[in-house]
């Protein structure tokens, strides 16, 4: 937890005012830490990004569409470009009954163009569907996330508790961690937007 910073002032006549508590500086990078309802958190991120777009904010990035399940194909996932509406399939067909991870790194690589375009545009916010197994291993969207952060572009993503340690190491422990609640996302974005003015 980030505690308020307290500034100590010397005591005595004619000395400056007493200690002042200040809020910690808002960080431009944040992750929604989800619990059991991973799909609900992805819907929350999607809804939040679309609300900002409807209000006229310049938002770019990718959100995850709800996964479809089929006995024949297993889990089917895709990413949606918030700007163009283009869909990027990110799951492999591993055959009926497979329980292995179906994430397709080639699909994620194809979708990375969305984040590279966002870096060139410098929007108010870039949303990234998740920081997951690929990013924790240094692939997936890792390079694009690092480039966005290095350039000071605000980034919001989703992280599962099992990848929280990797996320903290990836960001140098310099990212806000948010609960999966719309109010928390709007509060964070408002503070980021105010800081940018």
* C-alpha-based Rg, rounded: 19 Å
How many strand segments? 9
CATH class: Alpha Beta
Total helix count? 6
Briefly note the CATH topology name: Rossmann fold
- Give the low-pLDDT segments: 1-10, 17-22
Question: In what order do the strands lie side by side in the largest sheet?
Answer: 6-5-4-7-8-3-9
User: Which CATH architecture would you pick?
Assistant: 3-Layer(aba) Sandwich
How confident is the prediction overall: mean pLDDT? 84
Order of helices and strands: EEEHEEEHEHHEHEH
Residue share in β-strands:
15-25%
Largest sheet: 7 strands, mixed
Percent helix range = 25-40%
Overall number of structural domains? 1
Large-scale geometry: globular
**Separation, N- and C-terminal Cα atoms:** 26 Å
Which structural class best describes the helix and strand composition?
A: alpha/beta
């Amino acid at each position: 937890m980030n505690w308020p910073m307290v500034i100590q002032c010397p005591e005595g006549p004619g000395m400056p005012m007493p200690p002042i508590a200040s809020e910690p500086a808002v960080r431009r990078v944040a992750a929604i830490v989800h619990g059991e309802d991973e799909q609900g958190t992805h819907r929350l991120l999607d809804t939040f990004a679309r609300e900002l777009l409807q209000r006229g904010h310049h938002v770019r990035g990718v959100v995850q569409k709800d996964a479809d399940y089929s006995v024949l194909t297993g889990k089917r996932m895709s990413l949606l470009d918030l700007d163009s509406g283009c869909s990027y399939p990110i799951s492999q067909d591993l055959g009926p009954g497979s329980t292995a991870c179906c994430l397709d790194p080639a699909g994620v690589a194809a979708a990375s163009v969305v984040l590279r375009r966002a870096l060139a545009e410098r929007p108010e916010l870039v949303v990234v569907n998740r920081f997951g197994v690929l990013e924790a291993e240094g692939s997936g969207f890792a390079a694009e996330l690092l480039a966005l952060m290095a350039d000071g572009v605000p980034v919001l993503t989703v992280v599962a508790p099992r990848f929280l340690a990797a996320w903290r190491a990836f960001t140098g422990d310099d990212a806000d961690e948010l609960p999966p609640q719309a109010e928390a996302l709007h509060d964070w974005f408002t503070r980021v937007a105010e800081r940018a003015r």
